Hints:
With 259 residues, the protein is mainly α. It contains 13 helices and no strands. The longest helix has 32 residues. The N terminus is likely disordered.
Amino acid sequence: MTGKKSGAAEDGQSLPSGPPTDPAAVSLWERLDRPAPAPRATLTPQKIAAAAVRIADTDGIDAVTMRRLATELSVAPMAAYRYVSGKADVLDLMTDAVYADLTLPDDVENWRDVMQANALRSREIVLRHPWLIQISSPQSLRALTPHRMAAAERALASLDGLGLGVDAMMAVLGTVNSYVHGAVSAECAQYSLMREQGWDSNDDLRLALAPQMRYLIGTGRYPTYHRYLLEATHKDDPQWRFETGLDSVLDGIAARLGI
């Protein structure tokens, strides 16, 4: 007869005491928190991340391979595998490394100020490292890294104590993050197109699109868009557009939740 389980086990609160049978089930961050595999190791996760970021910033995310990393770091091809299991881990290390720059002043405490500062800083980081957008969505969502978690914790903490449930707090964070991701993705896509086509300015872009635009506006079907073309004063100011859209999102959150 099977003995009675403990109360903790019945409640589903017990944690496995032994190592998992699947090595992949152990988080990269848990592995890296363990003692270094060798004293005074010349290779570290930080060096791997820094080298991978340099490669991606210069040649794009597809240029980041384990062989290229070994060459960049002047180590044996298999050396990095002491710390990472493959490119997926390298992408996580890279993401964590660049999000280390997502820091906010200590005196920013109001939820709206925190969300706004977090969004503006995130935009700066992605524009500096556009390969963050190129990483596939599943990989991006999976990358729960210490620095990304710290940024999320700071944002959620700013909402705590305002009378919101945890679900609403997470919805606010997700909404702001979705706006940032969408707006900056569009901005990066435009810059990428301009580089590919050899266009040096927005004037070059407009000149290239002029034949299509003249025809479409000439049909008379788009009078409001035509008015934008004639009257807009911020066509070449992406930061103004980003901040205006962000303010609109934050205004909507404040009105909807009464905070």
